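Final report, closing paragraph on structural work. Over the funding period we assembled a curated collection of sequence-structure pairs, and we close with a single example.
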Amino acid sequence: MRIISGEFKGRRITAPKQLPVRPTTDMAKEALFNILNNKYYFDEISVLDLFSGTGNISYEFASRGTQNILAVDSDFGCVKFINQTSESFEMPIRTVKSDVFSFLEKSKQKHDIIFADPPYDFEIDQFAKIPTLVFQNNLLENEGLLIVEHSKHTDLSELENYSHSKSYGGNMFSFFQQTQ
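Its predicted structure, as stored:
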């Protein structure tokens, strides 16, 4: 995987093979950040990266100037890899080793963007828990955005606060916002 823009543009990051991850493709990541670039000043936002895996999305935000990034994953190897990588690049990424659902139930901190990349084989009720907990616990700032990455075979359009989806190859991003 590589960082596609910002201070660390072009830097390649090689994750250990044994990590239980499926990194977001460069094509999908580039398309996502083109959308976000038109909506946010990256140096002014707070980002929560759920099911962060290799930290791929967190590195992209850090490379673009985001200073407040929290990456959450339940796998010790993933958290260790993110810590090592962010330290070597001197990126401001904090990590928490936790089950994402437990973390969301207890969290009180608000974020401008919450990105979730759960396992593609989640059942729809598992996917539904993510926006439910985010909005129930008021974890987004005003104008904040929850983005859930999933397979094109999963339809999240019936979930509460769903806004729209974008498809890139086999990847989809579903966007959720607080409804007025």
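The longest strand covers residues 140-151. The mean pLDDT is 94. We thank the funder for supporting this effort.
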